[in-house]
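PROTEIN DATA CARD
Card holder: Zinc transporter
Chain length: 257
Origin: Halococcus hamelinensis 100A6
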Amino acid sequence: MTGLGAVAGLWKVLVIGWVAFVAMAGAAAVARVSVADPHPRRVVWSYGLASGAMVTSAAVFLVPQAVGYDPQVGGFGVAAGLLAGYAGHVIGHRFSHRDLPIETTTAQLTAHALTAGLVIGAVYSLLPDLGLLLGFGIVSHKGPAGYAAARRLRTKGRSVGSLLLPAAGVGITATAIGLLDPSTSMATNAAVFGFAAGIFLHIAMDFLPECEVGSEVAALVGKGEDDHALLDRLRIHGVASTAVGAGAVFLAWLVVG
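Structure generated from the sequence above:
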């Protein structure tokens, strides 16, 4: 797909796809050797930075485009994307409780990555002038996602090598859509950009650091008498990390703009 994309001149899509691949594969490799020492504060900051960057990127680069093409259709697209993201999350969670002949963590990540690639490919095909900053913000969650998934696989005694497929998923489908170069109407463009904004806003909210009892962060903290105080401190780190992630996109926009 990289070769086909290079011939077609889809350089932005290829760069985004490879950044997503390196981020997820690299974070999975780090988790493979550090699973015994997960550092809750690092997990909170990785999730928060990615979430803040994604919220800002979607709100600044996707929502205005959707509204600009058609306010009502774009708004319906945002709503559809948010609800579709929630539905996919629930369905994936249901499958995780079933005894299926596939590794559910990898399957869920692969489906998510392929879908995200479809949306990114469509967005950059409809508006080739979009900068790389949007793509980098959108795939910023690939690092934390790869780290978390690799930890789950390692605790189950499974190989993290299976994460190479979801790591490449964004680039595969984004390039495929870019090669098709679809021609659409204003209303369709509004729906596509709105749906993309909704999907990525849902993902961003899903990555907001949850420092509550029963959350992944709480599981890393353990079961000590000082857990509540530590979770309270981690909540401050969660707020700070999302603000820094959003601020990084803002500063990059100022420099690039």
